[in-house]
């Protein structure tokens, strides 16, 4: 781990893995709070690394201190939930030593029932002897090749606060040093601008990134999605729709983009068109070998909720009721869905469901 001023979350992270790992290595990049004191309760392998505005350098230093066969890396605001702790313990007992890297799910957001609502994947457990290296000062990535094993073990991320100001500062230093930003760094810079609500600037950066040759199609999908978000905030709804449709230049339709397209038409009052896209979302399978971000609710309850609304607007109450019930299968205690049920039953003059 690399840490700095993580006293609020570090114990939670380490409590979730302390009995699963054979050593804990903490690299501190300049904490001024109680981070190192908390870390000392779990390990005596705590090291200082002078912050040089380079996350990859800090992570590579942390990897250099590991001594076991495999390295698990975590951020301080990550944790393993109980299900994943059990799966990880089992993995340790059964992992084929020919595996070079274990790619785990990364749950970025949970819904009201504790189910993952958004996720990506990371190469999370890597063989030390392969000498894999981190690259990029900001939004660093671990370059991995060889025998990669995909697992549904998940690391759950509970982000605390915003790091955009810090990240933009690092990007500024990179631009001054290198004369600009290139490749994937353009995408990451656009993301930081968007997170800072600098939507017009972010949109320009996304357009510049999308004009580049495709190296990794998931990056272009993300750029289209983020560009659509910027167009929305800038009041350019036609541009938003064009950006979403553009995702299909890089991959077959995905449920999350179909839902977003459906909402564009729903917002314009073109309800039949909206229904087409929501129903298409329900027919699509979740991509299996992705490493990009997936908005998982678009493969579960969200299309059903939106179809409930759309069919309700058309006066097709029985179909609205059916989709609301399907959404309730995923969120059985959701107050809005329960309210929808009651209102639809009343409107249909039924007490026990549609006839």
UniProtKB/TrEMBL annotation:
Keywords on record: Transferase
One function term, GO molecular function aspect: transferase activity
UniProt-listed InterPro entries: Glyco_trans_2-like, Nucleotide-diphossugar_trans, TPR-like_helical_dom_sf, TPR_rpt
CDD domains: Beta4Glucosyltransferase
Keyword Glycosyltransferase: no
Alphabetical list of SUPFAM superfamilies matching this protein: Nucleotide-diphospho-sugar transferases (SSF53448), TPR-like (SSF48452)
SMART domains according to UniProt: TPR
Statement: the UniProt record of this protein carries the keyword Transferase: yes
All copies of domain Glycosyltransferase 2-like, residue ranges: 1-93
Domain of life, per lineage: Bacteria
Protein name: Glycosyltransferase
Organism of this sequence: Cohnella xylanilytica
């Amino acid at each position: 781990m690399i840490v700095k001023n993580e006293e609020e979350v570090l114990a939670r992270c380490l409590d979730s893995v302390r009995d699963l790992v054979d050593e804990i290595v903490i690299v501190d990049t300049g904490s001024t709070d109680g981070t190192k004191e908390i870390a000392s309760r779990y390990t005596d392998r705590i090291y200082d690394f002078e912050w040089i505005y380079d996350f990859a350098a800090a992570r590579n230093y942390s990897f250099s201190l590991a001594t076991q066969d495999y390295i698990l890396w975590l951020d301080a605001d990550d944790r393993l939930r109980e299900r994943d702790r059990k799966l990880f313990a089992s993995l340790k007992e059964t992992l084929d030593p020919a595996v070079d890297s274990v790619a785990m799910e990364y749950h970025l957001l949970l819904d009201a029932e504790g189910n993952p609502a958004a996720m990506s994947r990371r190469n999370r457990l890597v063989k030390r002897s392969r000498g894999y290296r981190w690259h990029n000062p900001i939004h660093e990535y671990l370059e991995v090749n060889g025998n990669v094993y995909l697992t549904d073990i998940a690391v759950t991320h509970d982000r605390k606060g915003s790091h955009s100001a810090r990240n933009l500062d690092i990007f500024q230093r990179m631009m001054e040093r290198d004369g600009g930003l290139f490749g994937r760094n353009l995408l990451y810079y656009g993301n930081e601008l968007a997170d800072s609500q600098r939507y017009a600037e972010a949109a320009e950066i996304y357009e510049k990134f999308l004009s580049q040759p495709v190296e990794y199609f998931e990056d272009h999908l993300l750029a289209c999605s983020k560009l659509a978000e910027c167009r929305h905030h800038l009041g350019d709804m036609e541009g938003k729709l064009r950006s979403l449709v553009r995702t299909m230049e890089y991959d077959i339709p995905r449920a999350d983009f179909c839902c977003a397209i459906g909402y564009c038409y729903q917002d314009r009052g073109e309800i039949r068109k909206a229904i087409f896209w929501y129903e298409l979302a329900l027919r699509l399978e979740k991509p299996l070998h992705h490493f990009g971000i997936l908005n998982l609710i678009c493969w579960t309850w969200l299309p059903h909720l939106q179809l409930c609304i759309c069919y309700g607007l058309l006066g097709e109450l029985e179909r609205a009721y059916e989709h609301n019930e399907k959404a309730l299968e995923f969120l059985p205690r959701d107050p809005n869905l329960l309210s929808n049920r009651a209102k639809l039953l009343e409107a249909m003059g039924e007490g026990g469901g549609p006839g």
